[in-house]
Amino acid sequence: xxxxxxxxxxxxxxxxxxxxxxxxxxxxxxxxxxxxxxxxxxxxxxxxxxxxxxxxxxxxxxxxxxxxxxxxxxxxxxxxxxxxxxxxxxxxxxxxxxxxxxxxxxxxxxxxxxxxxxxxxxxxxxxxxxxxxxxxxxxxxxxxxxxxxxxxxxxxxxxxxxxxxxxxxxxxxxxxxxxxxxxxxxxxxxxxxxxxxxxxxxxxxxxxxxxxxxxxxxxxxxxxxxxxxxxxxxxxxxxxxxxxxxxxxxxxxxxxxxxxxxxxxxxxxxxxxxxxxxxxxxxxxxxxxxxxxxxxxxxxxxxxxxxxxxxxxxxxxxxxxxxxxxxxxxxxxxxxxxxxxxxxxxxxxxxxxxxxxxxxxxxxxxxxxxxxxxxxxxxxxxxxxxxxxxxxxxxxxxxxxxxx
Length: 404
Ligand SMILES: *Cc1c(COP(=O)(O)O)cnc(C)c1O
Known about the structure:
- Helix content is 40%, strand content 18%.
- By secondary structure, the protein is an alpha/beta fold.
- It folds into two domains: 9-59 and 304-403, Aspartate Aminotransferase, domain 1; 73-301, Aspartate Aminotransferase, domain 2.
């Protein structure tokens, strides 16, 4: 059987396209907030597959629903619709501002769909000149050519040929900059209500309200990229619900499938018709396996029990991080919402977030970075409080080594 073939981390360097540099261990099993590697070493996982494993590893109900669906129907393409997709769409519409849903496979594809929808909508309703997209500096929207162009970080777009035209960038949380840039040519403004990759930076409510007003004034659509901030991550089902500012299009991925690849673009009856039959599509989009899992993820997360639990865990985690900051001086501030938390490295340790990741791993703890200066934590939304306490202990050991 092919499964008995021995493989190791060294094979990665020999076999794989070298666009990633994975850590030196290979995880083989996960349960809840714990992972085990090939050698049987155990880790507490505060990385959560980059904010994806919203219910931890191998959640029994997700295993059950996936297995059940696997015995029934895997794939039919969009030549046919399917029951899990319709049930999931119905629940997403009931739970949000949206009237309509498009299922795709990744955050980048959801954003690609959102940008294409915004352009097509403006094209059909106003005219071809209304195609400009305004995004925020230091944002992240995915790795397709359109989404790296909108993300606007040169390191992700350089060397890939001409970027997509008609995109500009303004500083995040700076309403004057947006007011100066937006015009009748703007078809959409896109932003993350809580910037993830950019350093775990929340948008202020006043900013979001003012962005909404500017969009309405100029007939531009407002797109919220909630690929990372959505699906309960901030303690509400979507981050926009904290501010009460409603977008015209919202993208969701990462946590929506709890680890099964699926993504969604949500929008309204006013905007959706621009993607008429044949204008856009995706072979796997709305795949029954992904939709069945995501339906159960939504059922579990969209409850007061889980969402309130996120706020409690946020308090425990950030109190612990602040205590470590006071004791060791390694962090200058702790920020974020819910269970997307950033610990900003103090002056002396700037640029060393990767080093913290490595030291933490040696202590049996998995964390993320958001840029070189911010240690990012995105654990399971239902991580046991005991695991948070133990993780803080392991982090303390790692930070002591950093501070030595
Ligand atoms: C991760 C992320 C994406 C890209 O998602 P993929 O599934 O990797 O394509 C887009 N936007 C935000 C805010 C993200 O955090």
